[in-house]
Design goal:
This protein is an alpha+beta fold. Helix content is about 15%, strand content about 35%. A hairpin with a 5-residue loop joins strand 9 and strand 10.
Length: about 260
């Protein structure tokens, strides 16, 4: 995710307390949220007015739990729509998917946030995560998909990963140690497109009452804004991936699988 539409000088005043080392070096902030300075440095005048914008961006940081992804590129190999390389984050601790031939289950954990500043460019915000206990099936495959699956699984089992979310796209990189002794992004692992969630936590919500479905989604990811809406109601057309709308029929039951948006 990139911060845009913020003047670089104002951004410097916001990040000055968080980045106490050389501004050209990456800084890893544990806990996944950016500390907001208590007061501006006098030399930056009134630039603190940007602070609420940055705070809102971090409070709305995309949560992977409950999201579903299909790969379009693994280690530089472009994949067609028929390639079944996927990741479904079932909850805030578990992920499942396919490497193209074999299905897998694993656990995952968010480790923190990396802020990379390069000269006058806008800061690059990368989330830090770890995937562990990867357990794939043992189906045999060969050819191109065997190589793609091998690259994908090896990337996931790296010590830790950095990921960037930008709109409808998720990009993964290896996490490596830089020359300055700090972790930074390394080799590109893959790029994924957001797709409809096939089910929530392995279960379909169709047929549940609206309240039952709402409770099931909030159990998977409490940070989501879950709304129950009668089918055919008027609503805003904005697209927000921190929101799930549950459409219910006249009987109050869910008649289609809820999705983010």
């Amino acid at each position: 995710m990139r911060l845009s539409n913020l003047p670089s000088l104002g951004l410097a005043s916001i990040l000055i307390n968080a980045l106490q080392s050389n501004a050209h070096e990456p800084t890893l902030l544990r806990g996944g949220q950016l500390p907001i300075p208590e007061a501006p440095s006098p030399e930056f005048g009134n630039e603190l007015q940007d602070t609420p914008v940055v705070k809102d961006l971090y409070l709305d940081t995309f949560q992977l739990a409950g999201s579903n992804w299909r790969a379009s590129n693994i280690r530089g190999a472009l994949l067609g729509s028929d390639a079944d390389v996927t990741m479904f984050f079932k909850s805030m601790t578990s992920v499942e998917g396919s490497g193209g031939c074999n299905q897998f289950d694993a656990s995952w954990d968010k480790l923190g946030t990396l802020i990379q500043i390069n000269g006058t460019e806008q800061p690059l915000i990368l989330e830090h995560m770890r995937v562990e206990d990867l357990a794939p099936t043992r189906r045999y495959c060969d050819g191109m998909m065997a190589q793609v699956e091998n690259y994908f699984f090896r990337g996931l089992t790296h010590d830790s990963l950095f990921y960037e979310f930008d709109g409808e796209e998720l990009t993964l990189w290896d996490a490596v140690m830089g020359e300055n002794g700090r972790q930074t992004r390394g080799m590109f692992i893959g790029r994924f497109n957001n797709v409809h969630v096939p089910s929530w936590g392995g279960q379909s919500l169709v047929g549940m009452t609206g309240e039952e479905a709402k409770a099931a989604i909030e159990d998977i990811n409490p940070s989501l804004q879950v709304q129950t809406i009668p089918e055919g109601s008027m609503m805003t057309m904005d697209h927000r991936l921190d929101r799930v709308r549950i459409f219910v029929g006249e009987d109050g039951n869910v008649n289609r699988e809820p999705q983010r948006g």
